[in-house]
Amino acid sequence: MTVGFIGIGAMGQPIAHNMLRGGVPLIVWNRTISKCDSLVAAGAVLAGSLDELFSSAETIFLMLADESAIDKVLDRGTPLFRQRVAHRTLVQMGTTSTGFSTALAEQVHSAGGHYVEAPVSGSRKPAEAGRLVGLLAGAQSDVDRVLPLLSSVCHEIFYCGPVPGGLRMKHATNMVLIPMMVSLCEAAHFARQSGLDMQTFSDVLLSGQMANDLMRAKLPKLATLDFAPQAAVKNVLDSALAAAGAASNAGCPATLLAACRELLSNAAKEGLGEEDVIALVKTLRA
Fold first, then answer.
1. Residue 234 a catalytic site member
2. Which of 36, 163, 171, 190 could connect to 243 by a Cys-Cys bridge, CB 3.0–4.6 Å?
3. Which of 235, 110, 229 is nearest to 170 (CA)?
4. Which sites are catalytic (predicted)?
5. The domain at 168-284 falls in which architecture?
6. pTM, whole model, 2 decimals?
7. For residue 79, with 0-12 CB atoms within 10 Å meaning exposed, 13-18 middle and 19 or more buried, which class applies?
8. Which residue among 170, 218, 234, 282 is the active-site one?
9. How far is it, in rounded angstroms, from Cα 283 to Cα 286?
10. Class of domain 3-163
């Protein structure tokens, strides 16, 4: 069974590579065709058009930048939408608002298709290592069909109930993760400004109860001021906005997240959107 994959970006590319390594036959499409080159070299088929991809695959994964990109790919709001999704399983991996995902799921079902939410927890480095955490939601029978396709992508997969349970879980985890990233940047900035040895600062954090994969990924980048994106400022800001919206809908204040959003927004306005989230140190020292 050939599987479709749309969205070969910072996360989509390593996810698709790991699916290929796991033996999943892929047909791929991306707006910038050259981003598919390494996948084609690894055995994927390059779709000449979206029509070709949808006609060739019964299950289609979407890892797209935002809601408008998803709508455009699916031709949502046009007669072509039904043709795209009927009798197919759509696996939506991007981080969107819960309202968007719920409405899309209803429309896919009305058109005779199936819909699975599959946001993941983790950035590019765990994506490359096949160490993401999958947060799946949808009808149990639909989720069960998708699970084997993600076995080489995620080291843990959790069933989060019906849509939008996967995204609610993603937003909840981001309410922990985003303040952690921001506070790490603030602490690293303080350590550097205070004249502390950055290697010792890193060793101290990684020797105690604060040691985790995020610290192990970001501390070396902070020590060398390596701003190449694993999780870009603009993407973390989008995640913060989506989590804030979900929190507001649930009647939760999300005070820490609001402070993080302000810092991330300032960094984006300063032209740092494409850089790794540790570029926040640039705004702190300005």
1. no
2. 171
3. 235
4. 170
5. Orthogonal Bundle (1.10)
6. 0.92
7. exposed
8. 170
9. 5
10. alpha beta
